[in-house]
Specification:
The protein has 7 helices and 12 strands. With 199 residues, the chain is of the alpha+beta class. The chain has one domain: tt1808, chain A, CATH 3.90.1570.10. The longest helix has 18 residues.
Amino acid sequence: MSESTTVPPMNQNEFEERLLDGDRWIELVNGRFSRLSPPDDAHGDVVRNLARSLAAFLKKSQDIYACFELPVVVDREGPTIRCPAVSCFRFQPGGRFTETDKVLTETRPELVIEVASTSDRREAMSERVQAYLEWGVTAVWVVDPVTRHVHQFHGRSTPEMLKEPQILLGNPVLPGFSMPVSDLFRQPKWIDRPPTATE
């Protein structure tokens, strides 16, 4: 029996306590605790490559910053708390990088990036995307390392699917940002590096 089915209904404060105790890759869905599988290597490659490109772009931004694996309270009534790979927020008056010091946030991101890597993440992805859009998130990107596609959702607009060798563009949230889809799935150089005599 999975932990998701044995843990009793949980409120937001109880969930936050688990985060403060160091628990990771956990979520609440309508008050029900859910534990996601640890990210696999493909998931890690995508996040690492995104982080590098976003860091270079956002370093010059006066408006947007990124958080990684920050749980977001999508619905306070449920409650439903999701843990996307990346969330991008606008700077708030009186405090830059406000969300980076939190263990979870009720602030709505402008952009959410999910990675459809492990089976549990893939199975619930359409539900996750719909919840983000209904909450008012401007854009949602779903990076799929299995098919090597990127799905972009913008409000009521028709979703777009990108594949190699197309270019991922940041509009409307990150105007000027661009990244080849193939770069999202690039493996670290050390994987292909032959071992040295001392290794």
